[in-house]
Write a structure and sequence with these properties.
This protein is of the alpha/beta class. About 40% of the residues lie in helices and about 15% in strands. The chain has eleven helices and eight strands. It has helices at about 30-40, 60-65, 70-75, 90-95, 100-110, 115-125, 140-155, 170, 175-185, 210-215, 220-235, and strands at about 20-25, 45-50, 85-90, 115, 130-135, 155-165, 195, 220. The strands form two sheets. The chain has a four-stranded parallel beta sheet, sandwiched between helices. Helix 1 (about 30-40) crosses helix 11 and helix 6 packs across helix 11 (about 220-235). The relative contact order is 0.16. InterPro entries: Ectoine_EutA (IPR014332), Iso_Racemase_Enz_sf (IPR053714), MaiA/AMDase (IPR026286). This is Ectoine utilization protein EutA. It comes from Mesorhizobium shangrilense.
């Protein structure tokens, strides 16, 4: 056995140029799949930690994740910097608050840009020039109400707000795609300038372009908007139209 002379070794600063961290609910099937499809490349790596979560999806259960955010963020490449880190839960980001999520995550990752699906949706809708929108959520009315108020606080007119009444995010992930397209069309008011489909569990990012083709207006989804924001933070530009019109837009951070 021969030991190689370590003086000849050379190291890159990073194994991959840009790093996106995801904090994903323990029960969520969808964010890693969507981010690998939308955001991952030879230049951008996706790194994930899971946070404990127990259904049903209620404001109380969502809010209970707040004390765990710092620990979850610390588990993503401990001791190393991330370019962006996203908390992959739209409804929890709303009830906990975008600023509170950022504060908790930055305890562990002080140099990372912190991204939430809710704030990314707002930025995405504004980048698309939409002010009057329709919203489709898989949640109950109780869980959806804080989200309606959230969008109104950010200056949007809600033409139509539709809830599916589900309480288990694993079931939300199983909504079949053709059904989801039909639901999106039914949930959109004729006068709306865009549709937002909420929830990181819902597989809407993969069919955003198909819904746009059907309706003729932009579609923003939780994972699509979050990936878009993370990519722009990493300096990545348009990835084509496969994932909706939003992916061609710049981000004002």
């Amino acid at each position: 056995m021969e030991l190689f002379d370590g003086r000849a070794l050379r190291f890159d600063a990073r194994p991959i140029a840009k790093r996106i961290g995801l904090i994903v609910l323990a029960t969520d099937h969808t964010p890693e799949v969507d981010f690998q499809r939308i955001a991952a490349s030879e230049r951008v790596g996706i790194h994930v930690a899971r946070i404990p979560y127990a259904n049903p999806t209620t404001p109380e259960n969502l809010r209970a994740m707040k004390p765990r955010l710092t620990e979850a963020a610390a588990l993503i490449l401990p001791g190393e910097e991330l370019d962006a880190i996203a908390f992959c839960c739209t409804s929890a980001s709303v009830v906990i608050g975008d600023d509170a999520v950022e504060t908790a995550v930055r305890v562990a990752k002080p140099d990372a840009k912190v991204v939430t699906p809710s704030a990314s949706a707002v930025r995405g809708l504004k980048a698309l020039g939409a002010t009057a929108i329709s919203v489709l959520t898989p949640y109950t009315v109780e869980t959806s109400e804080p989200m309606a108020r959230y969008f109104e606080r950010h200056g949007f007119v809600l033409d139509r707000f539709t809830c599916l009444g589900l309480t288990d995010d694993r079931e939300m992930a199983r909504i079949e795609l053709p059904t989801l397209v039909d639901l999106a069309v039914r949930a959109t008011a004729p006068q709306s300038q865009a549709l937002f489909v909420s929830c990181t569990s819902v597989r809407a990012a993969s069919i955003a372009a198909a819904i746009e083709d059907r309706m003729g207006i932009p579609v923003v989804t939780s994972n699509q908007a979050t990936a878009w924001a993370c990519l722009r933070i990493c300096g990545e530009q348009a990835r084509g139209g496969r994932h909706g019109l939003l992916m061609s837009k710049p981000l004002q951070w």
